[in-house]
C-alpha cells in the first residue's frame, strides 16, 4: 500500500498528555467528589439504574495509586457515526494498558455493538495499532449503530465477556452509544460479573457536552474541515460576485457545527436552530429573513453571498417540528397499512388524510422531493432521517419564489443565482487536528486509569481544554448524571440529554453581536487548511466556540 507523506509523518506524531497522565500510572490516584444525580427525572432514573446511580465524580491526582495490578483483558468498540480521533482513543487506551502491564490485552470488537454480540473481534497488537495512530476514520475495527437494549443482547455480551475473560469494555460513541454503555454497565453490575464499562464522548455534532464534558471529540476537526471548505466558497463567491451559496452542514439536534463554522468564516447568513425555535419562527419567517438579506445586498449591487444552514433546522421550526412529529406517529401507528402503499400518489394522499389542516397545508407547500424525503423510512430511533432532507434546496425554492414576488412588486432590483452544497461526510474521517489527536489519546489513556481503579458506568473526561494539554485535567463522570427520559418509538426511554446551543451563552452572544454586520457587508474570514506542524498558535488552537466558552477568545 502506498502512503502519502502526511500519513507517514502523522504515524510518528506523539500526542501530548495532561501532566497528571504523564506520571507513572502507579502514581496517579483517584479523588472522589460528591454523589451525583441525573439532570432530570431523578426518581425514575434511579429506579432504572439502582446499581450505578448516584456515583461520585472522579478526578485524578498525583499520589500513590490503589489501582489493581491484575491482568486486564479489555474489549473496545467504536459506535455510531465516524468522528476524527477515534483511532487515537484506542491508541491511548492500548498504550496505557501496555505501560501498566505488557501482559494486558486489548480486543477490538468489529462493527460496533454487534461485534460484542456476535463475538467478532481482533486482538490489537503493536504492529496493528501503529498503522492507525493519528489518522482519521474508524476503519481500525469499524463501527455500527446496533442498540443494546434487551436482555437477550446483554446475555450474549455477557457470554462473550466470559469467553475472553474480559475485565472491562470501553464504548467510544455519542449520546446514544454511551446510553448503551450506561445500560450495559447497570446490567453487569446487577449480575455482579465483574465486567466494568467505560464510555468516551464522541460526536462531530458537538451536542455531547455539559459542565463536565467540555467538548466531544471530532467536533474540532470536523468544524475546521468544513470551515476550510466554506471559506473557499466564500472566496469564490466574493471573486465571481454572481452566486448565492446555500451550505447545509451536519448537526441534526443542535446547531453547534453551523455556529462554529459561522464564527470561523463570517458568512452573510447563518441560522441557529435553537433561536428559531425559541422565537417560534415559522417557515415564512425564515424565508423572509433570507430574502431580506439578499434584497438588501442585491439592491446595493451585491448579488452574491453565503448562507449556512444546520441540517436539523427543519425540526427547530415549530410548525415543521409538529409536522414531522405527526408524520412519525402516522408512520408508526399505521406501519402495516402504509407499508402496502407503493405508489407515491397513494402515499401522499395517505399522509395528508391523517394530518390536521395546518400540518397538511405546510406539507403541501413543500416541493415533491422534500415531501418524499419526509416520508422516507425512519432511523433506528424512530425519527425522520433529517440528514437526507435537502433543507437548503427547500429554502432555495421558497426564497426564489419570494424574491420573484418582490421583484414583481418593484422592491427587489437584484438578481438571484444560487448553488447548494452539503458538508457532512467530508469532515467525519479527516486527519484529526493536533487538538483532537491529543484530546482523544488522553481520553483513551484516562479510560484505562478508570478501569484500573475498578469503577464502572463512567465516562472518561478530560477538562480545562482551552488551556493547552499540559494544563488539562483528567477524571470521570457517572453516565447516569447525564441521563433523562425521552420518547422513543412511542415509549419513554433513558437517554443522555443532548446539549443545545445556549442562547444566553458567550458563543451565541458573540455571533448575535456581529451577524448584522456580516449580513450587510462582505466580511468573510479565511481560516485556511488545518495545520499540523508549526507554531502552536496555528497548529494547536481550539475551536472559537471553546475559546469563547472559556473566556480566552481574542479577535484577530
List keywords for this structure.
556 residues, Rossmann fold, nine-stranded mixed β-sheet, globular
Explain what you see.
The structure is a single chain. This protein has 556 residues and is of the alpha/beta class. The protein folds into 2 domains: 17-218 and 432-488, Rossmann fold, CATH 3.40.50; 221-428 and 504-549, Phosphofructokinase domain (Rossmann fold), CATH 3.40.50.460. The chain has 24 helices and 15 strands. It has helices at residues 5-11, 19-22, 42-48, 86-100, 113-118, 126-129, 151-164, 175-191, 219-240, 256-265, 273-278, 283-298, 313-316, 318-333, 335-339, 344-354, 357-365, 368-374, 391-409, 425-428, 434-452, 506-520, 536-539, 544-549; strands at residues 28-35, 56-62, 73-78, 105-109, 121-123, 168-173, 196-201, 244-249, 269-270, 305-310, 418-423, 458-463, 473-478, 483-488, 491-496. A 9-stranded mixed β-sheet has the order 1-2-13-12-7-6-3-4-5, sandwiched between helices. Helix 9 (219-240) crosses helix 10 (256-265) and helix 12 packs across helix 19 (391-409). The protein is globular and about 80 Å long. The mean pLDDT is 95.
Helices and strands in order, then pairings?
Layout: H1 5-11, H2 19-22, E1 28-35, H3 42-48, E2 56-62, E3 73-78, H4 86-100, E4 105-109, H5 113-118, E5 121-123, H6 126-129, H7 151-164, E6 168-173, H8 175-191, E7 196-201, H9 219-240, E8 244-249, H10 256-265, E9 269-270, H11 273-278, H12 283-298, E10 305-310, H13 313-316, H14 318-333, H15 335-339, H16 344-354, H17 357-365, H18 368-374, H19 391-409, E11 418-423, H20 425-428, H21 434-452, E12 458-463, E13 473-478, E14 483-488, E15 491-496, H22 506-520, H23 536-539, H24 544-549
Helix pairs in contact: 4-21, 9-10, 12-19, 14-17
